């Protein structure tokens, strides 16, 4: 995706599989003033709360030999469900006209999952993507990193 400068009133989505931070730039292209619009947190449940699936078994049709099947990663499923919900929220924000331009910041795996769940109108609103994890940074640190991106 091409790299475009961040402007006034652009929205920035910073997320990973456990936290999504939606920011708006109330400043301009040179002097950012990122304002937190919404924070969504995936309360990481304990594995026993997510489910107790045991690995499945497969029986050979001819020989009758049994084999174990890999158990599903329940935490991975919870993260994917969280990211699908974030994508739905962004779709809604863009459809309502609240968001015109969006910068997406997420680790590569989360970025790919988000992209695959966003509607075409939302993907066309994305002006730039940064494949990094900024979710644990305070907003002033995110501003600092984005200033370097904007130059």
UniProtKB/TrEMBL annotation:
Full protein name: Host attachment protein
């Amino acid at each position: 995706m091409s790299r475009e400068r961040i402007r006034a009133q652009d929205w920035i989505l910073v997320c990973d599989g456990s936290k999504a931070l939606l920011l708006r730039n109330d400043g301009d292209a040179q002097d950012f003033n990122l304002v937190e619009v919404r924070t969504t947190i995936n309360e990481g449940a304990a594995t026993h709360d997510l489910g107790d699936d045991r690995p499945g078994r497969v029986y050979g049709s001819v020989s009758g030999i049994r084999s174990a099947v890999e158990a599903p990663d329940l935490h991975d499923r919870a993260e994917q469900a969280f990211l699908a919900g974030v994508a739905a929220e962004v779709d809604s924000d863009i459809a309502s006209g609240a968001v015109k331009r969006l910068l997406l910041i997420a680790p590569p795996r989360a970025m790919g999952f988000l992209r695959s769940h966003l509607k075409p109108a939302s993907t066309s609103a994305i002006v730039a993507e940064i494949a990094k994890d900024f979710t644990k940074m305070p907003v002033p640190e995110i501003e600092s990193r984005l200033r370097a991106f904007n130059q």
